[in-house]
Amino acid sequence: MRTLRFLLTGVGNVGRPLLEMIHERAALLRERYRLELRPVGLADSGGAAVDPRGLDLGAVLEAKQAKRSVATLPGVGRPGMGGLALVREVEADLLLESTPTNLTDAQPGLDIVREALRRGMPCVLASKGPLVLAFQELAALSDWDTPGKPALRFSGAVGGAMPTVNVGRRDLALGKLGLMEGVLNSTSHLMLCRMGEGLTYEAALKEAQEIGIAEPDPSLDVDGWDTANKLVILANAVLRVPTVLKDVAVTGMRGVTRAELDAARAKGGQVLLLARAEPREGGRWELSVRPTVVGGEHPLGRLGAREMGLVYRSDIHGKLTLISGEQGAWGASAAMLRDVLDVASQSLTLTPRASR
Ligand SMILES: NC(=O)C1=CN([C@@H]2O[C@H](COP(=O)(O)OP(=O)(O)OC[C@H]3O[C@@H](n4cnc5c(N)ncnc54)[C@H](OP(=O)(O)O)[C@@H]3O)[C@@H](O)[C@H]2O)C=CC1
Ligand SMILES: N[C@@H](CC=O)C(=O)O
């Protein structure tokens, strides 16, 4: 039996279900993977909770359910202790990071992940800011560029449970990739569908917020930036082209009218907030995010309101369409868990180095 001691920064819509899954599936983890995942440090916006013997997840989840910070937990709470201090001061084998995405400076996630990787700690991210603003730097600090360096995984950051990064990078190995198209933001897609059914913009956004899929700042969703973030991550990770946000032409969905939604529907198609990566001369890619009318014959033309999708085209694999149903933040939590298992299977000797 192996024990992996983990830190989690961000205990919100993604972090909470992740802890629930770890708690509820502890027996299955032991039985199937001979693995115990032990939470030794958690941080939210109010501070941290630390226990090297393992925090009581039942008590943690109860506190978060009651909208209390983990820092209020008796005996283990550390009011005011941030994620960075957690990584510096608490010995652990693995960092899980799910703080809010911030496109200004990618903080607090970026410093937390940098510090963890520098200390030799594998990192699993749901947050996109560090990947979007510093992909090449994090790749250089991790196994992404150099085998043997600490693992960096982020499959939950692009499409939740839909295995966009894994399929593109691993399963389409050696393929020369062609046009890639995706509906990668659940919130805007749900909103476009609901508005097509007659809901107002505000009511549609409220539904997305209620199911926990909207960003803490929902302008990232509706203005196309969350989709652009995911396209930047896929371009770096799958297309293997160093890419930053300004390489993407971005138009959000706020300007889409009811008449446009109705017209697309009448023809059997729909309006999608579509991410596209199109190969051009000289190894260049043209990247865009914009509302796009697609017909019913398009592989994503009949995407349901609660679905996301991605179409890869490869010269040797052909066309591959991924569609994931039933969105929800838990899809990203489940993807983080699969990344944890990937890290656990690859690093047979994880070295705790948090106290240096
Ligand atoms: N929701 C989704 O469907 C998906 C989200 N993501 C990404 O995952 C990340 C988390 O999203 P989500 O869970 O929805 O967001 P939430 O707003 O629900 O949760 C954010 C968590 O981070 C905590 N937090 C905020 N600031 C800090 C800080 N400075 N230090 C430590 N913790 C902090 C919050 O604390 P407190 O609890 O005290 O408020 C909360 O626990 C985002 O980067 C998002 O882009 C990725 C895929 C899907
Ligand atoms: N806000 C995002 C959450 C996942 O990345 C979305 O709506 O898709």
TrEMBL record:
Keywords: Amino-acid biosynthesis, Methionine biosynthesis, NADP, Oxidoreductase, Threonine biosynthesis. The keyword Amino-acid biosynthesis applies. GO terms for molecular function: homoserine dehydrogenase activity. This is Homoserine dehydrogenase. Belongs to the homoserine dehydrogenase family. The active site is at K230 (proton donor). NADPH binds at T104, K128. L-homoserine binds at E215. Gene3D superfamilies: Dihydrodipicolinate Reductase, domain 2, NAD(P)-binding Rossmann-like Domain. One of its GO terms (biological process) is threonine biosynthetic process. Residues 163-341 form the Homoserine dehydrogenase catalytic domain. It catalyses: L-homoserine + NADP(+) = L-aspartate 4-semialdehyde + NADPH + H(+). It is an enzyme of class 1 (oxidoreductase).
